[in-house]
Every structure is written in C-alpha cells, then in structure tokens.
Design a protein that fits this description.
- The protein contains 7 helices and 10 strands.
- By secondary structure, it is α/β, with parallel strands linked by helices.
Length: 290
C-alpha cells in the first residue's frame, strides 16, 4: 500500500515555510510483506517511521497541504466546501481534537475559524514541523488509542488519514474518542477507501486490475533485516469500518466518497486522475456521539 498523504492530497497554495531534510545514513530497503502485526508492534513501527520520514513527507506534500488548509484526501475535498464538521461559522468557540495531525494544517485552519483545536500525533518529529510553522494551540505527542484527556473534553474530533489506518485495533481509538467527546459531539475521519486494497498501488492502467482479495485483512508490513516491523498499515473492509463505528458507540451519519475533480491532475502512488475517475480513493465517515 502507498503511504497516505495524511488525508490531504495534491493541490493548494505553496507553503513558504519549508526546511531542509535531515540527512541520515542510508539503511537497507525494508522488505514488504503481508503478515500479522499487533497493537504494540504497529504503534512502535509507525511512530518510528513517521519520525524518520516526517521531513521528507512535509517537503513532498507540503505544497498540497499548505500551512493552514483542511483537506480530507488526495482528491482535494476541502472542509471549506464539504462542511462535514458543520458550517465554519459554527466552529467558533468549539473544542476540537485532531488525531494524527502531522504538521497540524487542519488544526491551523480550525483555529482561524475561531475554534480551539488540540493537535495530537504519535510522531514527535511531525509535531516539530507543526511547531515550526506555528499556531496558538496545543500540540500533544500521544497514541490515539490512549488519549491523555478527561472524559467530555471536546465538542468535535477529526482525523484526515491520521491514526486509524495504522492501528491494529481501531475500536481502541474510536472508544477513546467517544469517551473524550461531549454528548452531541461529532467525529469525522477519512481513510484510504477499503476497495483500494484489492488493487495494486499503481497510478496507470496496471492499477485497474484486481490483484488480491478485498476480504484479506492481513496487514501490510515493511520489516527490516531482523524481521522487525518498521511500517504497518491495516486493512478494514467497508463493513468492518461501519461495525467499528457503531460498536464503539457512535451513530453513522454519512459516508462520503469524494469524486476526483477535473482540476486535480496530480498523481503519486496509487492516486491519479485515471484511477480516481473509475474507483473511489477515499472514504470519509461522519459519526455522531449521541
């Protein structure tokens, strides 16, 4: 699987706050495989991967992400248009938790609407980029499956390709989010559309033929020469995602599958105009905490 663009895809104004990539000694290429990977191994692997690759990631995707945009996926669906968290004018004064915030672009946009965001990420290096860009809101380095907040701390929670694709047990995260949301709160999260797991990560015609079982939930793992996972991504079918949401106490309000817009000519990994016009690439779950 291609590592997602942290929920935000390829377009938007150019950021002027980049910094050079830290040069590290080259390590052997990891082996890609499909095997089981539990909660602890997945968390350890992905914390390390994002710490090592945060600089390169922000350089590669920073132009698309901007410094203060809220984009739900590679298609470029912007929260300004989508209003999945509600009308922008209703965000003022709301406490919002962003999970898997990366450099906190979404939180920065929320703050500009008058909300009170908290940006959380498992990667310390990603949050250093958030600190570099700036913003008057808290940055928290923590695992989304063990949120360091009291019950009923937030009105809203959001995650654009953050946290949920990388955890072995998504219900641990969803139950924690349910706990910290106030009654009447809302969670909106986006992930790679589950159907993409049946296709190879290729932007051209070769990426349009089914190459594996959609029902194979075996995680995608990259491991070092000792067999230790250095990157893990977990597959859930669409039905699994719905059951995870409902089983964690939420009510599913909407499932959004953004179409690929004509203006978006970018391609990388498995995302491209060719594929985007034929099969969905992103699934956005809008959930209510009654």
């Amino acid at each position: 699987m291609t590592r997602p663009a942290a929920g935000r895809g390829p377009a938007g104004r150019k950021s002027t706050t980049r910094e050079p990539i830290i040069q590290e000694p080259e390590a052997p290429e990891p082996e890609a495989t499909r095997r089981e990977a539990g909660v602890t191994e997945s968390a350890r692997a992905n914390r390390g991967w994002w710490d090592r690759n945060a600089d390169e990631y922000q350089v590669e995707h920073g132009t698309f992400l901007g410094d203060d945009r809220f984009v739900w996926g590679p298609e470029g669906l912007d929260e300004v248009e989508a209003e999945l968290l509600g009308p922008p004018e209703d965000l003022k004064g709301r406490d919002v938790l962003e999970l898997g915030a990366g450099a906190a672009q979404c939180s920065r946009w929320l703050a500009a609407q008058g909300a009170r965001p908290v940006a959380l990420d498992i990667s310390h290096r990603q949050l250093q980029h958030a600190l570099r860009i700036g913003g008057a809101f808290p940055l928290v380095c923590a695992d989304a499956s063990a949120l360091p907040f009291p019950d009923g701390s937030f009105d809203l929670a959001c995650s654009a390709y953050g946290a949920l694709p990388f955890v072995a047990d998504p219900r641990l995260v969803l139950r924690e989010v349910h706990r910290v949301l106030r009654p009447g709160g809302r969670l909106v999260f986006s992930v790679t559309h589950p159907i993409r797991w049946a296709f190879p990560d290729e932007p051209g015609p070769e990426g349009l033929s089914v190459s594996g079982s959609y029902f194979d939930r075996t995680p995608y793992v990259e491991q070092d020469e000792r067999g230790h996972a250095v990157y893990v991504e977990h597959h859930r079918t669409l039905g699994d995602r719905v059951r995870d949401v409902v089983g964690s106490g939420f009510r599913l309000v909407d499932l959004v599958e953004p179409e690929w817009p004509a203006w978006n000519t970018s391609e990388w990994g498995g995302w491209s105009p060719l594929r985007g016009n034929l099969i969905p690439g992103t699934a956005i779950f809008v959930c209510a905490r009654d």
